[in-house]
Design brief:
Layout (H helix, E strand, L loop, with lengths): L3 E5 L4 H12 L3 E6 L8 H5 L7 E4 L5 H11 L3 E4 L6 H6 L1 H22 L4 E7 L22 H20 L2 E7 L2 E2 L8 H13 L6 E3 L5 E2 L2 E2 H13 L6 E3 L5 E2 H11 L4 H4 E3 L17 H7 L7 H12 L2
Parallel strand pairs: 1-2, 1-4, 2-3, 4-5, 5-6, 6-11, 7-10, 8-13
Antiparallel strand pairs: 9-12
Helix pairs in contact: 1-8, 3-5, 5-6, 7-9, 7-12, 9-12
Amino acid sequence: MSRTALILGVTGQDGAYLSHLLLGKGYRVVGTSRDAQMANTSRLQRLGVADAVEIRSLAPNDFRSVLRVVSGVEPDEIYNLAGQTSVGLSFEQPVECMESIAGGSLTLLEAIRYLGAPVRLFNAGSSECFGDTGKEPANEDTPFRPRSPYAVAKSTAFWQVANYREAYGLFACSGILANHESPLRPERFVTQKIIQGVKAIAEGGKEKLKLGNLDIWRDWGWAPEYVEAMHLMVQAEKATDYVIATGTTYSLGHFAHAAFAAFDLDSEEWLEITSSLMRPSDLSYSAMDPGMIHRQLGWKSGIGLEEIVRKMHDDTLM
């Protein structure tokens, strides 16, 4: 019999790639949106899976809504990818950020506990929870030091999942995800802003690409690989939290220069730094150690930053 997966946040980048992956494995995939009739399925459509994904209306903070969907769908696996996704936006909307991420996570966990169903839950965590790691890569034992409303909310959800796993015996785990990119990223994310900005210049635009601090360092991965890690975690014998990352850190400046090079442009001529785009407390250096998931589950990222930039560049030509 085919398995059923329920994906909260199915219309986002990760939700679309995960849907594509699971459908290819023979799953029945049900996704959620606050209003199913108004759901933006453009990413699902780009991957050719929109017609195969069932969309249900669900308000993550409404216990009755969550309970109704989970009990009606009867999923074998739940992937919680919902909630605010932008670090920058979280400074502007901190209350909504906490409610959508931590509040939504708690409601989902409580619904699973209440129903007593043998559901396996994956929760999307974030490397932002570690804060500034310095040159020492963070692993599963590194303490959290969140420095944004987004990171605080993700840290809260992480510990909620751990608590329900330990207190109630749920199969619930969190993937501590480093930055992961793809052509499905919206332009509010700096990587897509860079790609689209450089593309506009290459097509004859006269406006320079404006960025904030280029001396921030991140571990950037390829989103389609990361959803494979999510699925592997849910198939494991024991629910365990893992860091999901490439293990290699680059500066934002490196990403930007690679993007200009992909379009055969000189970044020195077209790149402008402006202080107005700098965040209140941006992380300087974020390094990740994904060794445990490789040793225990066999997952390892195979696509580095240069190839990510090339893939995002090539997509703009299609």
